[in-house]
Design goal:
mainly alpha
Length: 184
Amino acid sequence: MEQRLDSRTAEANRRQPEQPAARESASAQRTGRKAAEGRERGLTLVELIVTCFIISILAGAAIPIARFQIKREKERELRRDLWMMRDAIDKYKDAADRGAFQTKVDSQNYPPDLETLVNGVDVQGKKLKFLRRIPVDPMTGQADWGLRSMQDDPDSDSFGGQSVFDVYSKSQGTALDGTKYSTW
């Protein structure tokens, strides 16, 4: 039995020196393959610079398009807000023309200000409102609108204060179609 153990130990000792050598050669082969594969998979500095250059050109082209899109969306919002306020003014005048409530004689049945459209008027014990809120002008960022009355000059930018006939933006900017926002 001791002879069997000795023979097994001798065999194990003979194999051990061979195994590290075999391991080293196998790992060297794998490392060589990995190094070669790594060179094939990576990018060179020139390729990286060209890629960054192409991406910067595409980003540079996308920025003006995004600005154009933002401006167009603000213009849509401005048109919608102006239409909504003008519609509320017209509804107020229609109700006053039908005699639903009393107005000042010199107002020609137009509202005295935009707050009246929001606060509403009393009609037979009920509050009749024409506008939920005064919208914010998307071009100026404020809820400050230019107002015109029937007595004002159509091209005037000052408000006489009698009644609100029309609203306009106080922005001095130019629209995409070349017109001024204040003329909308």
